[in-house]
Design brief:
The structure is a single chain. A hairpin with an 8-residue loop joins strand 3 and strand 4. The N terminus is likely disordered. 25% of the residues are buried. By secondary structure, this protein is α+β, with helices and mostly antiparallel strands. Helices cover 46% and strands 15% of the residues. Bound molecules: myristic acid (MYR). Myristic acid binds next to helix 2, helix 3 and helix 4. The site of myristic acid (MYR) has 17 residues, from helix 2, helix 3 and helix 4.
Length: 185
């Protein structure tokens, strides 16, 4: 007789994770739709999504650090790679590529070819100014602030606006030292 409880790693578990990403995408779509109804102006919706993402990011970093066993990154370049390869995989089920570094290593782009958040999405003409995935830029900003990095995160390319990929530009504005800030006299 076949076992009633499947082992971890069996197809059923892979499918459950897949369904969760779909459920997340559909739920996110319902939230965006409600914000559009409530706030009316797409600029306000963009700001609200970013703020919601920030609030999620400042909490999600704990789960990320606990589950990933990633330890302190040596520099911003390593941090960007960790976000693209471990963070996106953990929370969105996809990986991204880090490109377009500036000369001093303080700005880069995270490029997503595949973004499950938009799997069921088509923007009507009235929403052309919407940054539908703005929650993600907020999540990154919030999570990075919790590990002492003040950043500015902006969308450069967006498939819902006709681009071939999603591209997030991440600029490191300030790295706050974690040293003890008071003198012992
Ligand atoms: C450190 O130097 O302490 C490690 C920093 C790692 C930061 C990783 C932030 C991950 C945020 C995940 C975002 C996922 C978006 C879907």
């Amino acid at each position: 007789m076949a076992p009633v409880v499947p082992r971890s790693g069996d197809t059923i578990f892979a499918n459950i994770e897949h369904v969760n990403v779909e459920l997340f995408s559909l739920t996110y779509g319902a939230i965006v739709r409600q914000l559009i109804t409530d706030l009316e102006e797409v600029d306000d919706v963009n700001k609200q999504l970013d703020q919601m993402g920030y609030n999620i990011g400042v909490r999600l970093i704990d789960e990320f650090l606990a589950k990933s066993s990633v330890s302190t990154c040596t520099d911003f370049k390593e941090t960007a790679e960790v976000i693209a390869k471990v963070g996106f995989k953990m929370f969105l089920g996809v990986t991204a590529n880090v490109v377009n570094w500036n000369a001093d290593g303080t700005s880069c782009s995270i490029v997503l070819d595949d973004n499950p958040l938009v799997d069921f999405v088509e923007l009507p003409d009235t929403c052309q100014g919407l940054y539908y995935c703005n929650i993600l830029s907020g999540v990154l900003r919030g999570a990075l602030e919790m590990v002492s990095m003040k950043t500015e995160v902006t969308w450069v390319r967006d498939m819902l606006r006709g681009d071939d990929v999603f591209e997030l530009q991440v600029k490191l504005l300030k790295q706050v030292s974690e040293e003890y800030p008071y003198k012992d006299d």
